[in-house]
Amino acid sequence: TRPEPGKSLIWQYDFLEGFPAATQAATRVADMMEIQVALASCNMVQQLALWEHPPVTGSAVCEYALRIPPDVDSLRMRFAVGIRDGALMSGDNLCAFRVYVNGMRVWSTTKQTNDWERYLVDLPSLAGQDVVLQFVTDALGDSRWNWAAWGEPLLLGYGTGARP
Fold it and tell me: N or C end of the chain: which has fewer CB within 10 A?
């Protein structure tokens, strides 16, 4: 990750470390929903991940409430998405991955393959603010095989000076 000129990484938040404080919910009924932190293997590449298997109907939501330090000038989110090995995704069966910040969708994709896809997403500044960040998955087909995983998600804060 290359910050803007004159800015350096001054803060980061590891969503996997912060998982015990996160809330988990289903948008409808939680039947067959599973949200946890564990090793995930996608196309034979293993890494620590947030597993977020969506329920039979509706979406799975893993929500984090945090405060962005006031000296953070810009925010980026780094993560990977994958469907865990062994899932039988075929035909029109897809899994939706979405990220929301304060109720606004800031990123989304659909996925059917097992390989990890890596992303670096610019987020609004939000310096000094309380933020609600949500990881959301939704079965767009047969939910039994939507073995969704968010690989090593981090929130990266950049600023112009070193923190005291």
Answer: C
pTM above 0.90, yes or no: yes
Q: Is 23 within 8 Å of 121 (Cβ atoms)?
A: no
Place of tokens 């087909």: 141
The pLDDT value recorded for residue 4 is 66
Distance, in Å, from the CA atom of 99 to the CA atom of 136, rounded to the nearest integer, reads 6
Return the exposure string of 151-164: e unless at least 16 CB atoms fall within 10 Å of the residue's CB, then b.
bbbbbbbbbeeeee
Average pLDDT, the chain: 93
Please, which residues have CB within 8 angstroms of residue 125's CB and are 6 or more apart in sequence?
72, 73, 74, 75
Report the largest interatomic distance among the alpha carbons of the chain, rounded to a whole angstrom: 54
Report, as an integer, the average pLDDT of 36-64: 96
